[in-house]
Amino acid sequence: MPNARIYLSIIIALLIGIFFYFDLQQLLTLDNLKSQQETIVTYRNDHPLLATAIYAIVYIAVTGLSLPGATILTLAGGAVFGLLWGTLIVSFASSIGATLAFLAARFLFRDAVNDKFSMPSSIFISKKSIQA
User: Which of 54, 97, 98, 131 is deepest in the core (most CB within 10 A)?
Assistant: First the structure.
């Protein structure tokens, strides 16, 4: 289990490092969205399922890694897929990304948080009732 935590920490750090090292946040700006909107809409019209999958994966990654740009991606979803489909895709992708971020944080930091915020012995709550 400790090895899995180390590997997951390294993978997350590498992905975040790559995002900032290659200055990928410049792609997630309103100006870039405006300048690329026609190209993106054309691609979505030509390949609707692939465009939706790519958009959802990028949104999940940005949300799951807590990277800046989710607001721009949300606007892009509405501009590219329309209000109904954009809202639907963003809702699922943001929920999945937030769940992944929560699970990663819980897996990586559970022991440290338990040690720091352990309950006094006068309060009895079984761990089984908390985890259920």
Answer: 97
